[in-house]
Design brief:
Layout lengths: L17 H10 L13 H11 L11 E6 L2 H10 L4 H5 L2 E7 L4 H10 L8 H15 L6 H16 L9 H25 L3 E5 L4 H7 L7 E9 L15 H4 L4
Antiparallel strand pairs: 1-2, 2-4, 3-4
Bound molecules: flavin mononucleotide (FMN).
The site of flavin mononucleotide has 12 residues, from strand 3.
Amino acid sequence: MNVPSTNTPPDLTSNPTLDEFRKVVRGRRSVRRFTAEPVPAEVLDDCLELAMLAPNSSNLQPWEFFVVQTPDLKARLAAACLGQNAAKTAPVLIAVVARPDTWRRHARMALAQWPEQKLPDIVEKYYTRIAPIHYSQGPFGLFGAAKKTAGLFVGLARPVPRGPYSPNEMKIWATKSTALAAENLMLALRAHGYDSCPMEGFDECRVRRLLKLPKKGLVTMVLAAGKRSEKGVYNRQYRFARESLVHYL
Ligand SMILES: Cc1cc2nc3c(=O)[nH]c(=O)nc-3n(C[C@H](O)[C@H](O)[C@H](O)COP(=O)(O)O)c2cc1C
């Protein structure tokens, strides 16, 4: 299979059908037991490419993916995932990691890798001047605190962005985009005929140490991936009634 890169322009000549989309979304379930069948490398690559097409804040792509397939490391990672069946049986585990700390380097990359010949002035201004104001928190978070104070006053008169104003808010910032990439990854696996289970049940200290993760990286989820085994789905899918959670104002 030829894995199209994220930077290949999409084919917009035919629309995906709603039925196919629904099949992918409805077919995705959290699978707790997998068969031993491996996920082919091209499938994994394609799913990761599709994951990376998730919408993300300022296109700063604050995520990284750590793919674990070697039996020894995988067994140790499964143990750090509290020995969950999904982790123990999956042929692949993927740590989906949010990076609140890469925005400065990624802003430079966004400029260097702009996909058209001419870099629009507004884009250059955004990544060189606006993003640093928006995302810097300064030593001890002091710049963030100053931005928050200024926001309180200016915000009395007009709408202003209310953050991110601290290193903790940067963690939320990075985690939002990374969670969207995780969802793309799970849907892409389903579209390829594979399954997944997102897990937050893990010992983050152990996962971090085991995978030698970057110091400021946050493990948003560990995804188990593979083919569902016969009894891999534990119960029927259900959700609360739409009326209780959706509010048309
Ligand atoms: C952030 C997050 C963390 C989760 N952690 C776990 C987990 O540690 N173990 C597990 O078996 N399922 C985990 N799940 C799966 C949920 O239990 C599952 O999505 C939910 O019950 C709905 O079922 P469905 O995904 O099959 O629709 C997690 C899901 C999310 C989104």
